[in-house]
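Appendix B. Chain record.
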Amino acid sequence: MFSSRLNTSVEVNRITHRLGELRAAATPVLDLTESNPTRSGIEYPAAEIARLLSDARSLIYEPEPAGLPAAREAVARYYAERGESVDPGRVLLTSSTSEAYAWLFKLLADPGDEVLVPRPSYPLFDYLAALESVRVVPYPLVYHGVWTIDLDALRDAITPRTRAIVVVNPNNPTGSFLKRDEYETLVRLCRDHDLAIIGDEVFSDYALTDDPRRIPTLVAGDDVTIFALSGLSKIAGLPQIKLGWMVVNRPEAMARLEFIADTYLSVSTPVQWAAAGLLALRTSIQSQIHARLRRNLQTLQVQFGPESPMRVLHVEGGWYAVVQVPRIRSEEEWALDLLERKHVLVQPGFFYDFEAEAFLVVSLLTPEPVFARGIAEWTT
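Structure tokens predicted for this chain:
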């Protein structure tokens, strides 16, 4: 009786099952996967956030499909502070980047059409696309000391049913940014095949290295149809305050998206009036997160130094790190063994659709004492 779009297993995997048993037995677990900033010891200006969300103007319902002008102007100022000029008329608000993907799939694809997504990457794409009756086709990221797009494989993945190429910049979990030469190839491919680029930039404020070859954001791109996505969840460390957006570079695409948005009107009024103030608070929140990411990455790199059988793969930005482990057992066995013997929780690479074994993923946002203890336990 249910839609085939929801044809997915509800079985709990072995790692999650064992974690549930340990927690039910009140066994302390060193969770190295924590990526929720509101549960990671980040200090928030609680009174100021509450004040911003209690603006009396929120009592008046004034539906604007693309979002209230004040909120769209606040997003444009955010980009201006990053050195990018964005017309507020190019900004369309959503409740989240997940919703932005859903709307873009509605905009660009008919049932059975395809979007190209990076592999490895966040596994949510499969579900978002399936719910829109769109097919996900992966293109590989390859690692040779740094992560790069396999441009030949990307080119070969394009078919007559391809509608868009998704770029996560920086990627989750590899932490790799899009480079200028990769962008130029993407533009050529999209121009030749009449494709759009969807740039997911939620982690773009969290660069951990400098690289002049990097494309920090796609909002200035005008060679092909481009949608640049972001939101408060990562920029201000506020995933519970649901506000995302996309910057659109084609008027005809914007007009159609406004029609879709008008059908849902999903963005709440309080968060729109609070947007300017919440974005202004991001500096203090981001500084804490940046410091956390750098210190945990250093801990990881010191612990898994040149003499270690474990190898920390190069990470340019974002909240995650990837550790390559010896292929003496599967990733699932590695993760289960750490959980069983050391009570340390990590994620296996197959959660992110790594093509080969064996990789484990940890969150650099984990509170530092927990991270240091968990990594130390891992190596003993």
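Further analysis of this model is presented in Appendix C.
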